[in-house]
Every structure is written in structure tokens, then in C-alpha cells.
Amino acid sequence: MTELTAHEVLTTTRTVRRRLDLERPVDLDLIRQALTTALQAPSGSNAQSWHFLVITDADQRAAVGEYYRRAAEAYFDTPESAGNQPHPDPNRQRTQQRVRTSSEHLARNMGRVPVLVIPAIETPDRTELPAGNQSGLWGSILPAAWSYMLAARSLGLATAWTTLHLKYEREVADLLGLPPTVHQAALIPTAHYTGEGFKPAPRQPLEQVLHLNRW
CA 155, 69, 198: angle at the middle one, nearest 5? Predict the structure, then answer.
């Protein structure tokens, strides 16, 4: 495996849906390495109240995948779903259609991905999320989850950031035995990938989103 620079990892960690290898097993030691890296991420007050569920059991993966499929199929019918809104840029429109097609593929196959990782955050002594601004809470798990995906990329694995299963968060929590003080942040399918490597994706120019000193 070719060692990647930090720039290459940051610019080629793609959301992989169609190219996840559903047949090739993933060595759990690779997942452990990626998660060990993820634990270096920041967390509010250095509380480190994070948890990571790593699901490899075939029946458990299939059950979580079924909840994801149900949530995804409902989402595909909404105006917000990729491909459901026309875009003035034909290239962007074609990209959105590809995202839609790959998302449908992942929805059908989520339960077959060799490893499913659910990053979660614990709120000790309380089962309900705090009212108002929750950026500090989620900011204590999302950087670690992204660090996991970057580390997985550096180890030759592919991942996808997904959250649609959270429509059934309570059902998935019951399935996996999560206590009510632990809240799921995402569902990250992890696998080896098929085909060649990855390259930076097209993005809007910086000048369109950069604001200096004020809007």
C-alpha cells in the first residue's frame, strides 16, 4: 500500500457507496488502528465521552442495514434527496444523479458491508439531549468520527458518512443494547474498495464561499 501524504488523505477521502467491497473481509486490527487514531480528536472539556460500536456480526449488520434501507427509501421521495431538484449547472446535475444512484445501491447493500461503525456520544446522568445549542455536544464526537474515516483511508479502506438510520435510532439502540444515555451520531460502513484509487472531487470555487471579516 502506497503511503499517502496528509494532503492526499484529506483530499481523497470520498464517500464511497458503490465501490465498497462486499465480499472481502476486513481485518479488525485495521479498524482498531483507525479508531486509535480517532481518539486523538478534540472533545469538549476533554471529556472524551465518545463510544464506537463496531458491528461485524452478519445478523446484526443485516438488521441495521434493514433499518437504513427503510429510512433511505423514504428519504429518496423527499425534495431534499440528491437528484430530486434540478440544478442550473448540467455537470452538477449529472453529479447529483450519480449520487442518487450510488445512494440507492448503498441502501440496498448496507447490511452486507463487512464492518459498520456507529460513533456515539454519552450524556452521563441524562437520557434527553440538552435544549438549545448542541454544537458543543456533537462537536465532541464528529471530529473523532471524521478522523476515523481519514485514518481508514490511510489504511487502504473506504467509508461513507451516513445518518439516515437515525430515523430509527431507538430501534437500532434497542437492537444493539445501547443505554439511553448514549446517542448515535452516524453510521459509517467500512470496507476495502474495488477499482482504482480516489482523486479530489469537483467543488465550488473558494471565492463563492469565502467571507473575509463580514458577510
Answer: 30
Residues 6 or more apart whose Cβ sits within 8 Å of residue 135: none
Report in angstroms the alpha-carbon separations of 112 from 14, 75, 116, 142, 156: 20, 20, 9, 25, 19
- The predicted pLDDT at position 76 comes to 87
Report the candidate in 104, 101, 108 with the shortest Cα–Cα distance to residue 93. Answer: 101
SS3 of 80, please?
Answer: coil
User: Per-residue pLDDT averaged across 82-104, rounded?
Assistant: 77
Q: What is the DSSP letter of 156?
A: T
Rounded Cα distance between 213 and 215, Å, is 7
DSSP notation for 133-148: --HHHHTTTHHHHHHH
Is pLDDT larger for residue 100 or for residue 13? 13
Of the candidates 51, 21, 29, the residue with the CA atom closest to the CA atom of residue 38: 51
Alpha helices in 39-141 (DSSP H): 58-75, 90-109, 135-138
Question: Distance (Å, rounded) from C-alpha 48 to C-alpha 121?
Answer: 9
Whether the predicted pLDDT of 129 surpasses 90: no
- 180 alpha-carbon distance from chain centroid: 22
- Greatest CA separation for the chain: 53
| Cα angle value 187/48/149 (rounded, 5°) | 35
Cell numbers for 30, please give them.
Answer: 485495521
- The total number of residues shown for the chain amounts to 215
